[in-house]
Amino acid sequence: MLRRSAALALALALSAPASGALAQDTVKVGLVLPLTGVLAPVGKQVQAGAQLYMAQHGANVAGRKIDLIIRDDASVADNSKRLAQELIVNDKVAVIGSALTPSAMAIGPLSTQSKTANVVMVSGTSGVINPNNPYMIRTSFTLGQQSGIVAEWAAKNGSKKVVILQSDWAPGAEATAVFKDAFTRAGGEVADVIKVPLANPDFAPFLQRARDLNPDTLFVFVPAGQAGTFAKQFAERGLDKAGIKLIGPGDIVDDNDLPGMGDAMLGVVTAGIYSAAHDSQVNKDYVAAFEKVNPMRPNFISLGGYDGMHLIYEALKKTGGKTDGDALVGAMKGMSWESPRGPISIDPDTREIVQNIYMGKVEKVNGQLYTIPFETFPAVKDPLKAKK
Q1: Which of 3, 90, 190, 313 is 20 to 30 Å apart from 201, CA to CA?
Q2: Checking phi first, is residue 277 left (phi over 0); if not, alpha (psi -120 to 50) or beta?
Q3: Is residue 117 packed enough to be buried (19+ CB in 10 Å), middle (13-18) or exposed (0-12)?
Q4: Are 4 and 43 in contact (CB under 8 A)?
């Protein structure tokens, strides 16, 4: 009865018309981000990217004023759900932005029930965008886009026996599944899959276990924000000197952490969606503007917020300022533009981002570590949905 009453109250609140000039002229965009907690660096990058876009393009679009409301869920999915409901019911946001996978999964049903456009700015889990949540659109990435490509590259470049080390949550499981499938189909052996707790991880014992298996290659997925800790323990365990190649998706060479990782990361090869060293004028301008107002280097996560705001602005232009979810999502489908990461688009059939994947190697440039792209795979779709 309580659940039915809550659902009825939500439905009544959502159906109530907005009133007054402020409601008519203002478009509220609510972002639910992890600004504290285990993955706070992730939320801070998204926030910085979104705020930079607004600073560069102004707070007015299609005759409407954008009001950006940011809430901290402290990396806890239950908080995400509560805050999203408050934003939808009390603040009457026209668009909501989701972050981590557990957060996006918690918010998805709310955006569906309320018919609110939901831009997924962080999650890399393919299943987050699905037919049951038709108002969700992704501006981040999927781990499958990167993991399949790095698996094929590794098989072609001498890797025969791989140990996989992954954070124990949905994105890690997906990265492992796609990598394992592609690598074994190419004739390689996966000796073991080692799972590391997401919260407060100590990688050292898991790295020692991986080393004892004597692989030629270690495929690693840890979320952005934990890459620095991983790199330190990787070097302490001497894996960099044991002849074991380190590969993975771009998360393990996160630009936010890379400057402090140390020379043990030199030569690490990844498949990623972005590097701060990406050689385009759009990116050079982005990095300069970002670093001017933030005490950190922009990473691939920041673009989920930056491009997410671009998607919202351009959708509002296409709808002439209309904010109902069907109109906004319809406008977002099929949209394409030049991002600091390169050309991207929204697949109209899957609502997934289509983007370049770059093979890159960590090198030292002017005394600092950067991932330098050396091969481009253009217009990569989410492989799990493409297979279906």
Answers
A1: 190
A2: alpha
A3: buried
A4: no
SS3 of residue 248 by DSSP: strand
Return d(Cα 290, Cα 312) in angstroms, integer: 20
Q: Where does 61-214 have alpha helices with state H?
A: 77-89, 101-114, 143-156, 170-185, 204-212
Strand partners, 368: 365
pLDDT in tens, 52-106: 999 999 999 999 999 999 999 999 999 999 999 999 999 999 999 999 999 999 9
Beta bridge partners of 163: 192, 218
Strands (E), the chain: 26-33, 60-61, 64-72, 95-98, 117-120, 136-138, 161-167, 189-196, 217-221, 245-249, 269-272, 336-339, 342-346, 353-365, 368-380
The string of pLDDT tens digits covering residues 365-374 is 999 999 999 9
Q: Which residue has the higher pLDDT, 381 or 13?
A: 381
DSSP codes, 86-99 = HHHHTS--SEEEE-
pLDDT at 38 over 90: no
Closest among 46, 212, 13 to 140, alpha carbons compared: 46
**What is the secondary structure of 23-39 as a DSSP string?**
HHHEEEEEEEE--SSTT
Would you state the pLDDT for residue 227? 84
* Positive or negative: CA dihedral 372, 374, 376, 377: negative
Q: What is the pLDDT of residue 24?
A: 58
| d(C-alpha 185, C-alpha 295), whole Å | 44
For residue 284, what pLDDT is reported? 98
